[in-house]
Amino acid sequence: MSEHEGAADEPRKAPRSRLADYAEMTGPAGPAEATPEPAEAAAPEPGPSLDDPEVIARKKEFAALLGEFRRTAVLVPLGDEPVPDEERGLLTADFNGIRFILAFSDEQALARYAQARGEYTREWTYRTILGARLLDVAVPAAGVPCGVALDCADGPDGMVFPPVMGIVPDEAAVDRDTEADTDTDEGAAR
Q1: Residue 64 class from Cβ within 10 Å (0-12 exposed, 13-18 middle, 19+ buried)?
Q2: pLDDT digits over 94-114, tens only?
Q3: Cα distance between residue 177 and residue 158, in whole Å
Q4: Contact between residue 30 and residue 154 where contact means Cβ atoms under 8 Å apart
Q5: Percent of the chain surpassing pLDDT 90
Q6: CA distance 161 to 163
Q7: Which SS3 state, helix, strand or coil, does residue 178 take?
Q8: Which of 47, 78, 122, 126 is 20 to 30 A from 138 (CA-CA)?
């Protein structure tokens, strides 16, 4: 691609990133749906029991998705800090006190994210990282509650891997029983 595609008397266009080409191939991003303001908190209705066939089927489906993610190399953009690439951290977003590492299944998904942010003309540097390495190494290294958001610009087609037991290592999970951890540590010291 060239920076200036046109006659000498035409105004110069801003340089385009390869991601802009991918974004055009995927079609325009739809308008973001407005999230309604929550009404007063009502008492939650009891959900289906854990032995409900639908719950069991959904758990199996999620386990299969988690396994596939762990075995798949994904694209993880680097943050936009003004330091050399080897010193830049992974791109993250914080939501309700939980940090999420942003990962993308392919360059088209990253392009949709860049387009949704209005940043498709800039160059996006990324690393290819195995999903298991993100969950088992990068999440605990964050030092704060952290999960992974896959293809976050794709709405319902995206996936969130929250920092809970069974997804991330127990020491990085927000739902672990810290009292049981304390009891185990005391028992080991004796």
Answers
A1: exposed
A2: 999 999 999 999 999 999 999
A3: 29
A4: no
A5: 52
A6: 7
A7: helix
A8: 122
